[in-house]
Design goal:
The chain has strands at residues 4-7, 10-12, 18-24, 31-38, 45-50, 56-58, 66-71, 76-81, 90-98, 103-106, 110-114. It is an all-beta fold. Strands 2, 4, 5, 6, 9, 10 and 11 form a seven-stranded mixed β-sheet that branches. Strands 1-3-8-7 form a four-stranded antiparallel β-sheet, with no helix packed on it. It starts with a strand and ends with a strand.
Length: 116
């Protein structure tokens, strides 16, 4: 089991940038790491994933603006968010998926607010 703690959220103006961090309690080598977001009145959606082999996936609406990365040595996952838009505002969650156990682990979330 792994525990995840997100940080880095906050208030930013449209066009601004934020970098979210996710600190894991243990090794993340074996997990598919991902960032999700949940905005009021909307379904939770996957924003970006980072597989063990280094492959990544992005939600169409964030392609070219967001970058997911991981540092396995430090058990950290990042989400660099640039050119933020109003519609990016949400609670962002870090997740780790175990392919062996077919289990998701979640952080508590960090709020991202985009406002002028």
């Amino acid at each position: 089991q792994v525990q995840l703690v997100e940080s880095g959220g906050g208030l930013v103006q449209p066009g601004g940038s934020l970098r979210l961090s996710c600190a894991a309690s243990g090794s993340i080598d074996i997990y598919l790491m991902a960032w999700y977001r949940h905005a009021p009145g909307k379904q939770r959606e996957s924003v970006a994933t980072h597989n063990r082999d280094g492959s990544t996936w992005y939600l169409d609406s964030v392609k070219g603006r967001f970058t997911i990365s991981r540092d396995n040595a430090k058990n950290l996952v990042y989400l660099q968010m640039n050119s933020l838009k109003f519609e990016d505002a949400a609670v962002y969650y870090c997740s780790a998926y175990s392919l062996q156990l077919h289990t998701y682990y979640w952080g508590q979330g960090t709020q991202v607010t985009v406002s002028s």
